[in-house]
Amino acid sequence: MRYHDSVIELVGNTPLVRLNRVTAGISATVLAKVEYLNPGGSVKDRIALRMVEAAERSGALRPGGTIIEPTSGNTGVGLALVAQQKGYRCVFTCPDKVSSDKIDVLRAYGAQVVVCPTAVAPEHPDSYYQVSERLVRETPGGWKPDQYSNPENPASHYATTGPEIWEQTGGTITHFVAGVGTGGTITGTGRYLKEVSGGAVRIIGADPEGSVYSGGTGRPYLVEGVGEDFWPEAYDRGVADEIVAVADRDSFAMTRRLAREEGLLVGGSCGMAVVAALRVARRLGPEDTVVVLLPDGGRGYLSKIFNDDWMADYGFLSEPSTGARVADVLARKAEAES
Ligand code: PMP
C-alpha cells in the first residue's frame, strides 16, 4: 500500500515546468515552480506548516489553542489545513478587496473570517492588521503566527523551496524570480540559492507598481498577495539584486496568457512574476536558466482577472488613449511581437 498519513505530508516538493509559448523569442530556459500543486493550493502551505510546528515546540501554541492571522487568503488556507489536522481553531482577518471566492474557501475549511475595510491605514483600528491584534489580546489561548515578522516564514523557504529548486535544476539555475509580499519566499529561497551557489544565482523581486519594494508609497494596486505599504521583518532588503515593478495591466494580461497558452490557470501575482522573469530572460542567453515561482492557482480569480467585464471596468481590456498609455501599449506590442 502507498498512502500518506495526512494531507499535511503533501506540502512542498512541487514540480518545475518549462514555459514554452510566452517565452517566444527568448533563448534562456524559463522554468515555473508550480506552487498551486500544494494541497491547500498555494506556496503558503509551506510557511503554515513550519510556523505551527515551531509554535508547538516553543509552547506558544498549546492544545485547544486558536490561530489568529491577518491574511489575504492563501496563508489562511495553509493554516486552516494544518490547524484542522492538528486540532486548533482558526480566525482570520482580511481586507475587503480580497475575492469572495477566497473567503468562502477559508470558511469551507472551517475557519472563521472577519472582513475589514481595505481603504484605511495599517495603524487604523479597523485595518485587518489591527483587528487581528485585538482578537489575539481578547482570545484565551490565541496565537498569532504573524507571517510578516515570523522568522519561520523565510526559514521554511530556506529549508524547502530553495533546496528543491537547486536539486531540480541540478545546480544550473542562474536567476530566481519571485513576487514580494511578506518577503518570505524571496528571502528564504534567495538566501539559500545564494549560499549554495557561492553568490552566483541572481535574485530578482517582482513588485506591483506603487508598492514600497519598488520605491512607491503603497498606492492601491489590484494584484493580490504582493506589494506592501510598509517594510515587513520577514523581508531581507539585502537578498534581492534587482526589483522589477510591474503594472496591474501587464500582470493580468500575462495571467490570462498563462492559462490560454501554457495551460497554467494561476493567480495574478503569478502573471506579475512571469512578466518580471521575461524582462530579465530577454537579456540572457541559451546557457541561462531562470526559475520563476508561481504562488497560487487561478480559481480564486475567475470573477476578476478571468472575467472580461471586470477587466473592462478597470480599462485593462481597452486601448489606452493618453500619450503615456499609447507608449505603454506600443511597448507591450513590441514586447509581444519580439
Ligand atoms: N502571491 C500570492 C498570491 C500570495 O498570497 C503571496 C503571499 N502574500 C505572495 C505572492 C508573496 O509571497 P511572500 O509573502 O512570501 O513574499
TrEMBL record:
GO MF annotation terms: cystathionine beta-synthase activity; transferase activity, transferring alkyl or aryl (other than methyl) groups
Lyase recorded as keyword: yes
GO (cellular component) term, any one: cytoplasm
A GO BP annotation: cysteine biosynthetic process from serine
EC number: 4.2.1.22
Cofactor(s) it depends on: pyridoxal 5'-phosphate
Enzyme class: lyase
This protein's UniProt keywords: CBS domain, Lyase, Pyridoxal phosphate
The keyword Lyase appears for this protein: yes
Pathway where it operates: Amino-acid biosynthesis; L-cysteine biosynthesis; L-cysteine from L-homocysteine and L-serine: step 1/2
Catalytic activity reported: L-homocysteine + L-serine = L,L-cystathionine + H2O
Family (UniProt): Belongs to the cysteine synthase/cystathionine beta-synthase family.
Protein name, per record: Cystathionine beta-synthase
Organism: Allostreptomyces psammosilenae
Native organism taxonomy: Bacteria, Bacillati, Actinomycetota, Actinomycetes, Kitasatosporales
Stretch of the intact protein here: 1 to 338 of 473
